[in-house]
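UDP-N-acetylmuramoyl-tripeptide--D-alanyl-D-alanine ligase structure dump, as promised
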Amino acid sequence: MTPMTLSEIARVVGASPHDVRDPRALVTAPSAVDSREVVPGGLFVATAGARVDGHAYAAAAVADGAVAVLASRPTGVPTLVVEDVQLAIGLLAKHVLERIGPTVIGLTGSVGKTTTKDLLAQVLERHAATVATDRSFNNELGLPLTVLRADAGTRYLVLEMGAGRKGDLTYLTGIAPPQVGLVLNVGTAHVERMGGGQADVAEAKGELVAAVAADGFALLNADDPYVMGMAGRTKAQILLYGRSAKAPVRAEDVRLDGRARPAFELVTPAGRAPVELDLIGEHQVSNALAAAAVATALGLGVAEIADGLNAARRRSGGRLEIVERPDGITVVNDAYNANPESMRAGLRAVKALAGARRTVAVLGAMGQQAEASRARHADVGRLVADLRFDVLIAVGAGDPLAMARAAESAGQGVAVHAVEDVAGAIELATALVEPGDVVLVKASSEIGLSACARALAGA
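structure tokens r here:
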């Protein structure tokens, strides 16, 4: 965090100080929206949500060391009062970026953002001081909070940028204009709120590369036609990556080891080097290539990039997170989120991991799939059957029932069960799993199926 006085912060965001005894008091630590994550010297950002009002925790945050609170009303402790807290924290982040000037890397996509961000951060931080998005804090609050963790010594700022609607990426890139813009893919995540089709999703995702200046880089996935269609929206230099032979940054000789971890030959304009990832699923190759493309654009050598990828480990929970139980049961927690693309990737990765072992899929709903939701859930059910999973537990009413019916009618011998809620899934899965099983738990985050993964992992 770049040290700033309360008076400077107030000037930048247009705040009215209340109960501020010393305007010269320095904020020296990162800001937080969760009072439990406040650190001494930081700024507590109080937001009023649907279930929790951060203003109620202002006094506790100051008692834990926050210098002051950024809020929409006085709180009885040192507070900088603004009309719009979200707008204010964005203004503060933009001010900090203009002062410290790191290389900003923005990345977006329908799936794989967090894994790619984690891989890229681990490659770059071996080279120079790097700050990257924590977990999936990629929205209008999370991105500014990430920026505010940077300081004058930060060389690379890796910002995962989420988009739930058209215009979201225009807003985020207005706060943090990227010198490097990376688009991973265009799927059906958030399709309901973007207009109903993948072309609408592509239009929204393309806002990122449109924001990259002419002297920057736009990195496009050569394997995704929707992403390739964004080439005309950027003035930046384009660098392609992917499995395609036309991509300057590409993978050759892709294979999986006995634990479904991919290996490949990384090819860049500067040469080639072997990569062996410590992640499961062939889909991780695309994420690794995306990270390699960014590093290539930034001037890192191919051996340096490969070394970083080989040393990288999973950093964010709930994404193909593997827990090995003492009784030989393997629980794969992929319940942070779900859409058709990530469902397919997760199911295939777990099947590859299992080999000849019995497989159990505990699957809930995929959110925001618009009018095609029922059909897309049915497609997932058919894939469960086609991959010859032994057991499917469909969790929830509505679309998960379509998933269950499709798996059952496929006639591949999968034992199909349907339960009403997460509690039912925990009870049934606990009763059904056997020593040696590999269990995938996956759904959109709002379903709360991560509780089932935790219960199974701790059983």
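The CA atoms of residues 118 and 315 lie 6 Å apart.
lmk if u need the other ones
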